[in-house]
């Protein structure tokens, strides 16, 4: 049986209505090919069923749906993580959190780590892979997010204990590192309009953007070891507020770190 070919790769990409680079990525995804192979063979005939699927993905992309959800994956710290609408798409600025965490763990032997609000698992899994001697836990209140995080851990070969928990509970014991990228966008922030495809509960507390940070920082001393450090990501304009929260909670050695754009992005403190 001969399969129908109504268009070439070049024709489909040209008529996609979206950026050429994005169209090429989507067509490569549909065909399970590399982008390079499409570039090498632009006159490749595309079966009608694949063309139909490609056009639908382009329509969704044109409507604003993130590429990461269309492709079902996003690279983070050099590894490919599955993503879907149950989790926040990993951001490049969060890779700075990994660099900071690894620096903090550098002098510790067999450290214990907990990642609060793990989502796709990108933070906890990355730390477990970069520090295979560490005991890593990760918590989230979303069952679909935990299911996805467990799948990512299996595929990447990471040893992480996942718990359905509202921040700390029921994570037992104390940790050498508590790390979190919690929802920190204020409920009225206009940036939320451009993020409507992502789970709202992973982006905002629908309040002042500090509710989750208050909960995490306020309980941190009860969950840190004597040598333990709390490390949180926050909004570009929340540095002063987060430092105040840490001081009010009795934490010490408070430091703010900037991201690659020079914006205040993370705050750390010791018990």
What can you tell me about this protein's structure?
By secondary structure, the protein is α/β, with parallel strands linked by helices. It contains ten helices and eleven strands. A seven-stranded mixed beta sheet has the order 7-6-5-8-9-11-10, sandwiched between helices. A two-stranded antiparallel sheet has the order 1-2. Strands 3-4 form a two-stranded antiparallel sheet. Strand 3 and strand 4 form a beta hairpin. Helix 2 packs across helix 4, helix 6 runs parallel beside helix 7 and helix 9 packs parallel to helix 10. The longest helix is centred in the first third of the chain and has 15 residues. It is elongated and about 65 Å long. The protein starts with a strand and ends with a strand. The model has no long low-confidence stretch (mean pLDDT 94).
């Amino acid at each position: 049986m001969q399969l129908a070919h109504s268009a070439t790769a070049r024709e489909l990409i040209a008529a996609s209505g979206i950026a050429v680079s994005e169209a090429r990525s989507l067509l490569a995804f549909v065909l399970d090919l590399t982008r390079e192979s499409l570039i090498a063979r632009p006159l490749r005939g595309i079966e009608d069923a694949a063309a139909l699927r490609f056009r639908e993905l382009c329509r969704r992309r044109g409507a604003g749906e993130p590429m990461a959800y269309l492709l079902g994956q996003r690279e983070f710290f050099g590894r490919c993580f599955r993503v879907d609408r149950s989790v926040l798409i990993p951001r490049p600025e969060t890779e700075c959190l990994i660099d900071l965490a690894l620096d903090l763990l550098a002098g510790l032997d067999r450290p214990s780590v907990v990642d609060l609000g793990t989502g796709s698992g990108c933070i906890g899994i990355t730390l477990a892979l970069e520090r295979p001697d560490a005991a890593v836990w990760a918590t989230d209140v979303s069952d679909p997010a935990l299911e996805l995080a467990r799948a990512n851990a299996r595929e990447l070969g990471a040893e992480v204990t996942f718990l359905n928990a509202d921040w700390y509970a029921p994570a037992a014991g104390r940790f050498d590192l508590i790390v979190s990228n919690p929802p920190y966008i204020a409920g009225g922030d206009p940036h939320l309009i451009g993020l409507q495809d992502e789970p709202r509960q992973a982006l905002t507390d629908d309040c002042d953007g500090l509710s989750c940070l208050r909960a995490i920082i306020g309980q941190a001393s009860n969950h840190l070891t004597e040598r333990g450090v709390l490390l949180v990501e926050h909004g570009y304009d929340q540095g002063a507020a987060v430092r105040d929260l840490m001081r009010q909670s009795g934490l010490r050695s408070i430091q703010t770190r900037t991201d690659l754009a020079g914006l205040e992005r993370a705050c750390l403190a010791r018990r």
